[in-house]
């Protein structure tokens, strides 16, 4: 039985100071027993002599300095894992909340994970067909990638994420897949949207849900994504499954971090977020990937809402520096009725190059992709010029580019949330659109592909 | 041995008491797992230690032992082709010992102690040798001949030396010194925080060929120079760094992944062995050393990784080689510095960075340069340093970018607007600069073509004119421009799209020699010259714009090096013929 301390000195926000403590380790997990018998958890943030500063994982309401007891458990916060987790619903702290039985643990895993040795990673190169043209054709997702969705408040990022979860598959392979979903401080309605979508498609039996809703204690959110990733690591690297992890919404997570940092009176970084936000986010995002000699993979789609639609806000900014690309949703396209409103130009998949091409998608994929980007970009410029100076100000070629940009948004990007396009269909639509332009403009496409795939033959 | 006890743990910072006898900057072992740390500060008998591994599980009372030596790297054959963490532990060895994940407290050496290398003496018995003199050589990989040098502080006569197969710790030579006989193994170690000594620093004089046209032609970097690549995420910093690591004409490349993505290091690790160096015909991995401290690895070791990397680079420079070091990204290094500074409760400077950020950055870049090495043979070595900067929000007014720009001579400004258009490398030609352009231009005039600087100057001024004309077009439309100005727009577009833009994934386009660069730019500009001429002779602008040969100019980059002369001459002939045919044509 571990020693109990009744020497709580201070509770302020998510922090608690305990005096005269012996033999406690940094990062150790503690339990606080209230007079009512209720148990809450905390972890050691700093040890100085016999003073221990801990961070609460749950709310501080009801804590009494004189009656509460603290025990330290000699281990860090961990999650009991087993394959039986599939189909179950857990709280943000990893406790079952679906009235089902407790999980009989196959093992307990530290929720902080252990960094993957870069020499033991396997480079992600397997094409995932999401059925969404703007992703498959232009910002291709591969197995083991971390590709966030940068959204703005009021945009349908949930629909897009659900669509990806529903349609994603690897060509030509039966695979052992699972979805791990973490709701981080989102509303009941948003969370229910995902759950009912998983239920509708039957995916719910292959899904592990971790739910921390907006009215749950903010401080629990710091653990929620780590719980989810720990479950995902177990399923992927111990059970050999291909796991898709959806984390929503990272902005809520970062705000919870800021709360703890402010309570600790740390020197703040940009916009009051802790100076180590980059490293903190990285220890989560980098848990995605593939490992040498292991069958499974973790593909991660974190969702975040950009405050003020601002991509340079620290949360999207630091995320973009860590993740392997980003899918950016645009309010302007949403207003135009483009669904999904993916702004393809600033969107990017860094790993696409090794996931596309002959044998994976099709030989002309890379060339047409670059051509579509370049043409859409020029078309948008032309449209902008046209709105200032009128159509007459454009050269003949630029008029065609403007037309291309218009149709590109309409036919390529705007496909709706229920359409599931194969990669061939996506490439075909791309060629149809490129045929608006004269062949001599298609400089980024090899001559042989133009001859083979261009819908208008000479 | 100095032994203290832990009294405080806060993240990577540990404070230990009973350390009065230890030195600042000594390496210490902390706790039962013998985590590696470095002493940053001493107050009375309390030492503040930055620990290079995860500190979870440490307790007050845990033992701290000082090694009495500063943080050092091991230098000997076995470095090339290796991948090491920030404090030079071999990641491959860790993988073999501990599996796919990086658990703490794994004790592995940087270099293999078992492997035998074939040592060939250069010095003879009776030779007088001093620091930097070459004792002998080991053919470490195909392209790298590893020179075994006399370590610092050893001077005397060679008493014995023999050819044979040795491990790095076996004695290869005995040197008789004032203080008695010294047994020298191949392995030596050097502290990382101080520059390795050399005889004399020299001015850089020749360009580092990178094969990237926008760099080599417009903003060249000298061998022994310094360059920075700042840019927001998604603008292609890493792609530029990878391209430089692949194609630079140097003997050894040190690539430091400092706080960056794990998969990027994996990419290098998997791709480089397959790629062939166009100069040596050998695998690129055979000249590359990787230092990987990815973003999820402990933050303190990230701070050390930069120094580990540059010290290894200096070691190869001291052999008389041209070495390039790529640090991706120095911003993550600065953040690690900031994090430790915050934990030490130092007074922050700008944006929370410590006040010594600028001087630390300057010290790092100043370790680059062209030098006359130690040793009697008067060999020269070059160390080129290229740092990526990841400014918050892509705004280079932040402290790390600003401090870097004050130091480095070359600034490749990455532009997200170009990246969105998939114009790669997304280096903006208007906001970048190179202070080496003039000096390197002279070298190129002598060694490539006497018209090099002239050609470059014309391309730059056309691009400048284009920017001004574009502003006018935004106001009055393209039709308001004169035909000559329209030609400027056309040729500038051609310079941008057909010349500067380069496809890193195309076999023939990924790398261009200086020769190809010169001929290609000449071809692009010849269209302009001939076009202006044709306009004077009455040709219609639209005909010139729609010339069929322009499409061939656009595809000229895909011509393999050996066909360049013939193919470009033919394109030029075709273009001129076409021009001639439109001059006489009446307007419809």
Q: Please report which band the strand proportion of chain A falls in: under 5%, 5-15%, 15-25%, 25-35%, 35-45% or over 45%.
A: 15-25%
Main-sheet strand order of chain A equals 9-17-16-18-20-14-21-22
Number of helices of chain A: 13
Q: What value does the Rg of chain B take, in angstroms?
A: 28 Å
- Report the sheet with the most strands of chain A, covering strand number, pairing sense and barrel closure: 8 strands, mixed
Helix content of chain B: 25-40%
Number of strands of chain B: 26
Number of helices of chain B: 16
The unreliable regions of chain B are: none
Shape of chain B: globular
State the low-pLDDT regions of chain A, or none.
Answer: none
Structural class of chain B: alpha+beta
- Separation of the first and last Cα atoms of chain B: 95 Å
Distance between the termini of chain A: 84 Å
Overall morphology of chain A:
elongated
Q: What would you call the structural class of chain A? A: alpha/beta
Question: Can you put this structure into words, describing what you see?
Answer:
The complex is a heterodimer of chains A (458) and B (588). Chain A has 13 helices and 22 strands. Chain A is of the alpha/beta class. Chain A is elongated, with a radius of gyration of 25 Å. The N and C termini of chain A lie far apart (84 Å). The termini of chain B are far apart. In chain B, helix 7 packs parallel to helix 8 (399-407) and helix 12 (483-500) runs antiparallel to helix 13 (514-536). Chain B is globular and about 95 Å long. Helix content of chain B is 34%, strand content 23%. Chain B has 588 residues and is an alpha+beta fold. Strand 5 (39-48) of chain A pairs antiparallel with strand 1 of chain B, so a sheet runs across the interface.
Question: What are the key terms here?
Answer:
heterodimer; A: 8-stranded mixed beta sheet; 13 helices; B: about 600 residues; alpha+beta; 6-stranded antiparallel barrel; 16 helices; about 35% helix; globular
């Amino acid at each position: 039985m571990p020693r109990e301390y009744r020497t709580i000195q201070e509770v302020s926000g998510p922090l608690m100071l305990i005096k005269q403590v012996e033999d406690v380790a940094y990062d150790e997990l503690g339990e606080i027993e209230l007079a009512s018998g209720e148990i809450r958890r905390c972890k050691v943030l700093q040890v100085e002599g016999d003073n221990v500063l801990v961070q609460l994982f749950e709310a501080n309401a009801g804590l009494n300095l004189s009656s509460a007891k603290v025990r330290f458990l000699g281990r860090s916060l961990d999650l009991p894992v087993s394959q039986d987790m599939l189909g179950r619903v857990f709280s943000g702290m990893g406790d079952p909340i679906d009235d089902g039985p407790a999980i009989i643990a196959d093992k307990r895993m530290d929720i902080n994970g252990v960094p993957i040795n870069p020499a033991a990673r396997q480079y992600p190169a397997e094409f995932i067909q999401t059925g969404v043209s703007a992703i498959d054709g232009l910002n291709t997702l591969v197995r083991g990638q971390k590709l966030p969705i940068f959204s703005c408040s009021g945009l349908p990022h949930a629909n897009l994420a659900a669509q990806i979860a529903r349609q994603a598959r690897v060509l030509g392979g039966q695979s052992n897949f699972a979805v791990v979903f973490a709701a981080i401080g989102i509303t009941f309605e948003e969370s229910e949207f995902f759950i009912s979508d998983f239920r509708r498609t039957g995916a719910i039996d292959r899904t592990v849900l971790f739910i921390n809703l907006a009215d749950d204690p903010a401080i629990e959110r710091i653990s929620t994504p780590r719980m989810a990733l720990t479950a995902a690591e177990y399923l992927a690297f111990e059970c050999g499954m291909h796991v898709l992890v959806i984390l929503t919404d990272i902005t809520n997570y970062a705000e919870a971090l800021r709360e703890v940092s402010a309570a600790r009176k740390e020197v703040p970084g940009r916009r009051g977020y802790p100076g180590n936000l980059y490293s903190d986010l990285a220890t989560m995002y980098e848990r995605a990937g593939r490992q040498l000699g292991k069958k499974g993979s973790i593909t991660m789609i974190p969702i975040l809402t950009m405050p003020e639609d601002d991509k340079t806000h620290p949360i999207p900014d630091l995320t973009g520096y860590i993740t392997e690309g980003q899918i950016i949703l645009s309010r302007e396209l949403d207003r135009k009725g483009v669904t999904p409103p993916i702004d393809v130009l600033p969107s990017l998949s860094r790993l696409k190059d090794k996931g596309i091409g002959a044998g994976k998608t099709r030989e002309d994929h890379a060339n047409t992709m670059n051509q579509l980007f370049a043409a859409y970009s020029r078309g948008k410029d032309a449209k902008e010029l046209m709105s200032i100076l009128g159509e007459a100000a454009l050269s003949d070629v630029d008029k065609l580019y403007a037309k291309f940009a218009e149709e590109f948004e309409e036919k390529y990007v705007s496909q709706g949330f229920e359409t599931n396009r194969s990669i061939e269909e996506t490439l075909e639509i791309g060629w149809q659109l490129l045929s608006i332009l004269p062949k001599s403009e298609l400089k980024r496409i090899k001559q042989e592909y133009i001859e083979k795939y261009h819908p208008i033959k000479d | 041995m100095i032994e203290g006890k832990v009294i405080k743990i806060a993240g990577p910072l540990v404070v230990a008491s009973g350390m009065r006898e230890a030195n600042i900057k000594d390496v210490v072992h902390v706790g039962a797992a013998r985590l590696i740390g470095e002493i940053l500060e001493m107050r009375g008998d309390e030492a503040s230690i930055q620990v290079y591994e995860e500190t979870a599980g440490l307790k007050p009372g845990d033992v701290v032992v000082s090694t009495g030596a500063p943080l050092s790297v091991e230098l000997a054959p076995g470095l090339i082709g290796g991948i090491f963490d920030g404090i030079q532990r071999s990641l491959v060895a860790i993988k073999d010992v501990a599996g796919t994940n990086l658990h703490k407290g794994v004790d592995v050496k940087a270099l293999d102690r078992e492997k035998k290398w074939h040592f060939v003496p250069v010095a003879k018995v009776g030779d007088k040798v001093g620091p930097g003199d070459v004792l002998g050589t080991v053919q470490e990989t195909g392209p790298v001949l590893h020179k075994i040098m006399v370590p610092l502080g050893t001077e005397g006569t060679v008493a014995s030396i023999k050819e044979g197969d040795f491990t790095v710790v076996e004695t290869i030579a005995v040197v008789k010194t004032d203080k008695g006989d010294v047994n020298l193994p191949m392995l030596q170690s050097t502290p990382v925080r101080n520059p390795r000594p050399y005889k004399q620093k020299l001015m850089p004089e020749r360009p580092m060929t990178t094969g990237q046209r926008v760099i080599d032609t417009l903003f060249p970097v000298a061998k022994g120079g310094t360059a920075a690549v700042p840019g927001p995420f998604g603008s292609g910093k890493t792609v530029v760094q990878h391209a430089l690591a692949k194609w630079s004409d140097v003997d050894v490349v040190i690539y430091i992944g400092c706080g960056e993505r794990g998969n990027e290091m994996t990419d290098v690790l998997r791709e480089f062995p397959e790629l062939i160096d166009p100069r040596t015909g050998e695998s690129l991995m055979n000249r590359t050393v990787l230092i990987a401290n990815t973003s999820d690895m402990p933050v303190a070791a990230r701070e050390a990784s930069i120094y580990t990397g540059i010290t290894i680079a200096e070691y190869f420079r001291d052999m008389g080689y041209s070495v390039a070091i790529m640090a991706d990204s120095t911003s993550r290094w600065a953040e690690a510095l900031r994090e430790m500074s915050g934990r030490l409760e130092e007074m922050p400077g700008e944006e929370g960075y410590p006040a010594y950020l600028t001087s630390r950055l300057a010290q790092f870049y100043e370790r680059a340069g062209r030098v006359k090495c130690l040793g009697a043979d008067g060999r020269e070595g070059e160390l080129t340093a290229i740092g990526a900067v990841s400014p918050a929000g892509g705004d280079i007014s932040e402290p790390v970018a600003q401090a870097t720009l004050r130091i480095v001579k070359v600034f490749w400004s990455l532009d997200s607007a170009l990246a969105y258009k998939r114009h790669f490398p997304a280096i903006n030609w208007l906001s970048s600069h190179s202070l080496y352009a003039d000096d390197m231009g002279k070298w190129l005039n002598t060694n490539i073509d006497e018209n090099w600087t002239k050609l470059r100057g014309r391309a730059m001024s056309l691009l400048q004119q284009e920017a001004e004309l574009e502003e006018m077009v935004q106001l009055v439309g393209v039709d308001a421009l004169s035909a000559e100005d329209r030609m400027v727009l056309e040729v500038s577009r051609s310079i941008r799209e057909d010349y500067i833009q380069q496809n890193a994934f195309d076999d023939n386009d990924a790398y261009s020699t200086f020769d190809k660069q010169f001929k290609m730019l000449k071809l692009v500009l010849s269209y302009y010259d001939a076009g202006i001429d044709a306009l004077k002779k009455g040709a219609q602008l639209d005909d010139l714009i729609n010339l069929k040969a322009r499409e061939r100019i656009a595809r000229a980059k895909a011509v393999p090096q050996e066909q360049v002369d013939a193919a470009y001459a033919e394109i030029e002939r075709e273009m001129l013929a076409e021009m001639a045919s439109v001059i006489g044509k009446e307007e419809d």
